[in-house]
Amino acid sequence: xxxxxxxLNALALACALSLPLFVQAHExxxxxxxxxxxxxxxxxxxxxxxxxxxxxxxxGLRTLAVAAGEHARAFELAGTVVMxxxxxxxxxxxxxGRLEAGPQGLPLPGQSVKKGQVLAYVVPTAGALERSxxxxxxxxxxxAKELAQRRLARLRELADTVARKDIEAAESELQxxxxxxxxxxxxxxxxxxxxxxxxxxxxxxxxxxxxxxxxREQVFEVVDPAxxxxxxxxxxxxxAQDVAGAxxxxxxxxxxxxxxxxxxxxxxxxxxxxxxxxxxxxxxxLALGQSVRLVVQTRSRVAGLQxxxxxxxxxxxxxxxxxVKTGPEQYAPRVVRIQPLDGxxxxxxxxxxxxxxxxxxxxxxxxxxx
Length: 370
Fold this sequence. Notes:
The protein is an alpha+beta fold. Helix content is 27%, strand content 38%. It folds into three domains: 42-70 and 302-366, conserved putative lor/sdh protein from methanococcus maripaludis s2 fold (Beta Barrel); 75-85 and 225-301, Beta Barrel (Elongation Factor Tu (Ef-tu), domain 3), CATH 2.40.30; 90-223, CATH 2.40.50.100.
């Protein structure tokens, strides 16, 4: 046997002996999927999920048995705190003039006032020509009054020879001049009293002693904090006609039920104003003009199974699904049709049966198991 033939036989034998080692090393490569443990969460071939009880507790899974019923729809509206027109009002200057403090001084915001209480005075300001004309008219009336007094006195001395009607005419002229003189004098010293239209507190004040005001300028705003109202704007007329009630979330997390008072019949800023009233003590925590968010319930109802919004997930086909507990350690996805109720719940109209337990907490973690 030649040397070349011996070399080829040795090379073939070496390759044959190393082949099983190569195959074994390839089968243990990291690309191969690891063996599944019998107690690990996993997705089944039918799309359901197997998850042991221990894993359920670790993931914090919670389920809820759903029941059929009719539920009111809900939608959110932006609202504003407004005053009750019967328990609040504005104090405006009827005349242009200079502002003076009232008997108890100028009230401050938040101060309590009574209906009819004088808050301030407005002293009319007139020009130099107008004031001089009033003074000249006052002087003429004063001189005419003195002449009328003297004439009446002479007629009374000659009462036996003078007709009674002449004496009565002189008396009437004297009374007229006296009244005209008093009116002109009051016009020169007149003060317009600004009084509180209702009992309540001063919501806003634009008053400063000596301030010059224009006619119809607002000086004070008085409101009764126990009778505040909520006004919301509905841009869909159909929504405005289907309102049953509403609820208001206060900053502290408290939810206040509101009573629907009515909807306007004319548009304002392309929307219909809606009026709501609620608990006086709760609404008194709000400020006049504060913006709030309302959750409005409708009179129309939707038949279905109410589930929390957190229970809804999406499958690979982007369909809405919920996870239903079919066994102690089994969860199955169900494609559902929904109708929105409010910002927290939805109504499932198709895909669920009453009594089934739906995963409401941890549903997003179930959706990630592969």
